[in-house]
Design a protein that fits this description.
The structure is a single chain. The protein has one domain (2-183): Rossmann fold. Helices cover 33% and strands 27% of the residues. It contains 5 helices and 8 strands, in the order E-H-E-E-E-E-H-E-E-H-E-H-H. Strands 1, 2, 3, 4, 5, 6, 7 and 8 form an 8-stranded mixed sheet that branches. Helix 1 packs across helix 5 (165-186) and helix 2 (77-88) runs parallel beside helix 3.
């Protein structure tokens, strides 16, 4: 069983921001799999007990993939992730857990799929690592930096800014490629 977690912040205020790249990724992943006729995919459902929006993907009647969008806000994402992992007995290690998040260390339009690598100060990633007591999981690091060397805007403020139409198109293209690559990595 795979758990794929997209990090972001809930609510209209944060829709379309760089910090919600993980949510945007999961929406696209869901959309692409939904087109597959052999899979049974549950629509997104708010699950208060897991502090998340969840979707379950089944093949031959067995749950293979859980998609999770924590609505705990970025800084407390680990609480929601650890609750779900305990309930479904998902082990740490291998490719069982995939964390998808924005990354200011990577240029907009690029991404990296790596194990145990993340930006230095990403509060959502740090929360997950702390709650799980491990950093041994796969990450999809979605590049969101389009400042072209201009660092006058602090990173914490920059990631909460809305993407322009052009930036959104670039992000969508990189997410499409990242979704395809992740499916190859986890062979799903």
């Amino acid at each position: 069983m795979f758990l794929i977690v997209g990090l972001g912040n809930p609510g209209k205020k944060y829709e379309g921001t760089r910090h919600n790249a993980g949510f945007i990724f999961l929406d696209r992943f869901f959309e692409l799999l939904y087109k597959s006729s052999r899979l049974m995919i549950d629509d997104w459902k708010k699950e208060d007990s897991f502090q998340s929006d969840l979707s379950f993907i089944r093949d031959d009647g067995h749950t293979d993939v859980i998609l999770q969008k924590p609505f705990t806000f970025m800084n407390k994402s680990g609480e929601a992730v650890s609750k779900l992992m305990k309930k479904f007995k998902i082990p740490i290690g291998g490719n069982n857990i995939v964390l998808v998040h924005d990354d200011l260390d990577i240029e907009l339009g690029k991404y990296k799929i790596q194990r145990a690598r993340s930006p230095r100060d990403h509060k959502g990633v740090l929360s997950v690592e702390k709650s799980l007591g491990s950093s041994d999981f796969l990450r999809v690091r979605i590049g969101v930096d389009s400042r072209a060397g201009d660092r006058t805007i602090r990173g914490e403020d920059y990631v909460l800014m809305k993407l322009s139409k052009e930036e959104k198109e670039i992000l969508d293209e990189s997410i499409e490629a990242a979704v395809k690559d992740l499916r190859e990595v986890i062979q799903y």
